[in-house]
Task: inverse folding
């Protein structure tokens, strides 16, 4: 099956100022690189005039002229298109351009204020385009005093391989009224889709305001069905109550790897108002080639706010939550975080990118007033500080050890590794070996009381499991407690029937338990409860087998 361009973008490149990175190449700005080249993305399959526009050094002027009749119509319905004329850099004129106000609660303003605007050059003149783009957005950046969040995070997404609208700046006028510096962002149109996907004719949906994919999302583009059956199928797959069936159905309908990258970048950039955190500011595209859905970020004007924001919790949005509850996919998400970490840590390159943008914007702001420029300097400085803090926090979170999905072979057997001693008193817990065979040893200490153990944690999907071990004991005087007697194996919080006491040869031990949650963290225990003696657990024998589905079974042990 052919891959989308976004899937092909993930190649390993060598950084000019560091080590290997994923999907991008960091370039030095010392040689006077164009403004958007610090993060070099894979070039479009069919380069067009838009590439040169976003790589240009200068900040264009955009002068918008709206006739009185059209202006009054717009005042009556700020969300509806009316005709206007656009003059770029006092040289290039575009006639019959569609214009409307855009934005949500924080950024929406009327046309007579300092509005955020959408310009649709294709709306009334089908052959007209703005540097090979049918649609652009002019953002008033009311919630981003740095004017940099959108550009910086667009660069990060594109470097990570996430389809994302490119961004730059513009100086904007409406009917000769100087509105100042704006963010300019390309629109999600057919040409955008063709730059990122082999086939750009699929359905593209606007997530709207605080809506998940189970809402009646607006279809912006696409030749697919108009009944939203593609969205409904993905919703149904995510809500499938059977874990195995849900995994298969979601994998058929969603590019899981692409979504994990999308989610990782959203959370690493502290996009609190994005899809994963707030079910807001996103687009969904159903690629006709792969037959799978792709998510794309939008509205990245409030980024890196809470630099301690978690990247490890389970987001509330339907698709994100579904993936994070699957042990295998959560493990792949952690791998993705690790792969993307060089984009943020160390923060020096992001700082250099801000310096590069600042060098372009400051002269424009200085021309608007010294106070404006100085205030902007302070905002940029604080953003750099937040990027530094975020880098440190990401390193700390990424170092957090959490259980990984347990991998079973074709026979349903999984080896158990990464055990650690958990002393409860003064017992001796050591690793030993004899003729190449490794053992975990527990020996009762001077206090003549042991409830000590070796433990490991795993993530398991719903099902019935059996824990296996081989052990032998010497001179064990067992203690009987609620959890069990003498030496044995169990899960944390559970009770065991298996036990060894006295002196024995190597003996096989088994402990069966049931996981009924879709995903559950389980701590496995190999222990000794005694007043005297020693137990040896054969490390190679510590295994888990998966028996059968947990559906309709009675939970015999409480975890």
Result:
């Amino acid at each position: 099956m052919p891959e989308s361009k976004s899937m092909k973008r993930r190649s390993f490149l060598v950084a000019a100022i560091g080590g290997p990175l994923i999907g991008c190449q960091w370039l030095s700005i010392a040689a006077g690189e164009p403004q958007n080249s610090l993060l070099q993305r894979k070039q479009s399959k069919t380069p067009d005039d838009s590439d040169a526009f976003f790589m240009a050094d200068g900040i264009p002027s955009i002068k918008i002229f709206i006739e009185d009749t059209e202006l009054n119509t717009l005042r009556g319905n700020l969300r509806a298109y009316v005709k206007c004329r656009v003059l770029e850099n006092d040289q290039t004129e575009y006639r019959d351009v569609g214009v409307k106000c855009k934005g949500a609660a924080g950024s929406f303003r009327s046309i007579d204020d300092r509005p955020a605007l959408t310009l649709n050059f294709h709306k009334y003149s089908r052959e007209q385009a703005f540097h090979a783009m049918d649609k652009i957005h002019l953002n008033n950046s009311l919630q981003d005093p740095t004017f940099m969040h959108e550009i910086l995070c667009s660069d990060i997404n594109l470097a990570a391989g996430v389809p994302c609208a490119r961004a730059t700046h513009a100086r904007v006028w409406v009917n000769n009224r100087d509105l100042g510096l704006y963010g300019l962002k390309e629109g999600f149109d057919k040409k955008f889709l063709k730059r990122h996907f082999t086939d750009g004719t699929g359905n593209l949906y606007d997530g709207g305001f605080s809506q998940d994919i189970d809402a009646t999302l607006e279809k912006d583009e696409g030749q697919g069905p108009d009944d939203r059956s593609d969205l409904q199928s993905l919703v149904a797959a995510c809500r499938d109550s059977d874990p195995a069936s849900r995994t298969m159905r979601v994998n058929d309908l969603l590019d899981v790897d692409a979504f994990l990258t999308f989610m990782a970048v959203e959370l690493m950039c502290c996009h609190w108002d994005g899809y994963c955190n707030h079910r807001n500011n996103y687009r969904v595209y159903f690629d006709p080639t792969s037959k799978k859905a792709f998510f794309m970020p939008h509205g990245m004007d409030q980024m890196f706010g809470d630099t301690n924001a978690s990247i490890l919790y389970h987001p509330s949005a339907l698709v994100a939550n579904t993936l994070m509850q699957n042990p295998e996919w959560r493990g792949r998400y952690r791998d993705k975080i690790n792969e993307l970490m060089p984009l943020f840590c160390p923060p020096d390159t992001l700082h250099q990118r801000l310096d590069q943008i600042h060098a372009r914007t400051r002269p424009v702001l200085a021309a608007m007033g010294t106070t404006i420029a100085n205030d902007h300097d302070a905002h940029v400085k604080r953003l750099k500080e937040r990027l530094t803090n975020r880098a440190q926090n990401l390193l700390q979170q990424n170092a957090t050890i959490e259980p990984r999905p347990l991998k079973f072979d074709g026979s349903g057997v999984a080896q158990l590794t990464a055990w650690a001693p958990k002393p409860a008193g003064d017992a001796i817990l050591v690793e030993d070996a004899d003729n190449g065979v490794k053992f975990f040893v527990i020996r009762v200490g001077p206090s003549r009381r042991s409830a000590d153990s070796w433990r490991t944690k795993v993530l398991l999907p719903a099902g019935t499991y059996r824990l296996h071990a081989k052990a032998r004991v010497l001179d064990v005087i067992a203690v009987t407690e609620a959890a069990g007697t003498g030496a044995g194996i169990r899960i944390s919080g559970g009770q065991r029937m298996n036990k060894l006491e006295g002196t024995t040869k190597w003996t096989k031990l088994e402990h069966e338990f049931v996981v009924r949650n879709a995903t559950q963290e389980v701590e496995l225990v190999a222990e000794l409860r005694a007043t005297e003696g020693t137990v040896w657990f054969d490390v190679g024998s510590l295994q888990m087998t998966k028996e059968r589905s947990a559906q309709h079974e009675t939970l015999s042990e409480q975890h």
